[in-house]
Amino acid sequence: MGSLGTGLVSPATTPPRQVDTIDTLVDTIKSCFYFLRHDASLQNEQQKAVNESKGPSKTENGFRESLNARTRLVQACRLLINALEGPTETSKNMALVDKHSLVSLQTINHYRIAELVPANGDISIEALADKVKLPADTLARILRQAMTYQVFREPRNGYISHTVTSMEIPRLEPLLTYQLEVCLPSSLGLIRWLKQGQEDAIKSPFQVAHHTEDSWWEYAGKRPSLIQGYGRYMELITNGGPHDVSHVVRGFAWESLGEALVVDIGGANGFVSVMLADAFPSLTLMIQDSTNLQEVADATIPAHLKGRVTFTPHSFFEPQKSTSRGADIFLLRHILHDWADEDCITILRQLTQCLKPGASIIVAEQVMSMPGAVDRERERVMRALDMQMMVQFGGKERTLEDWEGLFQRADESLEMVGVVKPDGSADSLIQLKKSSE
Question: Which BP terms does GO give this entry (predicted)?
């Protein structure tokens, strides 16, 4: 059986962050900028050498150094802006400006405006307004708000053209639609949810904002286009970056399993299973998810993997069927953070009850750090994801201690035999076995 090993330490205490002054922030910006400028020049030389077959491409360590320098530079720039604006202006901008920036982006995405603007050249706002059936003056005001954060530009009066940011909007459509059409209203329901006492039937601000007693999953399950859009969103955010599927592929010794059955619990359209099956020919993958995803999953599985990757409609709140009870691995990737503790315990117990000797449960989730333990840019995203789990699902991101407590409550015989956070990954892979083995 492949093992994750060890490698994650949860600090009991975290040293306080250094208080940055304007001088130290400027010094950081300068040093990171000069490093990245030199690094870009070096990369160009290395790429030229690769093209001429004279040497290797940029090393993984070099990439990591560049990424760290970029993160420090962005972080220092944000802090410098806050320091120069002062607390009053910073708060005013968050309250007044940010919400209008979001709804202008929401409007642009909703009406697919970026797709109507030519890649080269410009188009009149009047022509755009005619295409999307909106008043020209109203559309102009929305677009000009978006231009303040570099979405589109107005090269001549009454005409707009693309910027590098607006060119990305069509590719990001699944993310923008889910975040701005579904999650943004949920976030605005937070105060009402807090005031009503978080009744048993209403577990999240999503339910308050969308006027339903259904959970997000029940609500979306009744609306096939919504659940399919969510699947496209998940596929997008796991294609590159800290949530890339490749971290699951290289974060566990899958090849050591030999011929084995892996059950991808809540595997959506099967994008994780497909990548694992492609990388490890001896594995058989079973995707389990809602019936509504059957058609899109069948379309996702390429012809050469049919038979080795299959989709089975199944609720993870129900006992496993005979076809999956003999699995070697049950994979729970980005599942448990969507649910409150009691629901997670139910999900885990359905697996521990049928876990055969030698089999494992692998939980691929973010492990929350203590405040100040990671750089501010990473913490901003971590805290935002935790808030999103709360407002959208009534779930949460968890610390290592939270995970340990949850597993023990689900089954006292469950033991964490390994925790690994692959380099560059936001998620850790937690391997669970029964201690009686």
Answer: methylation
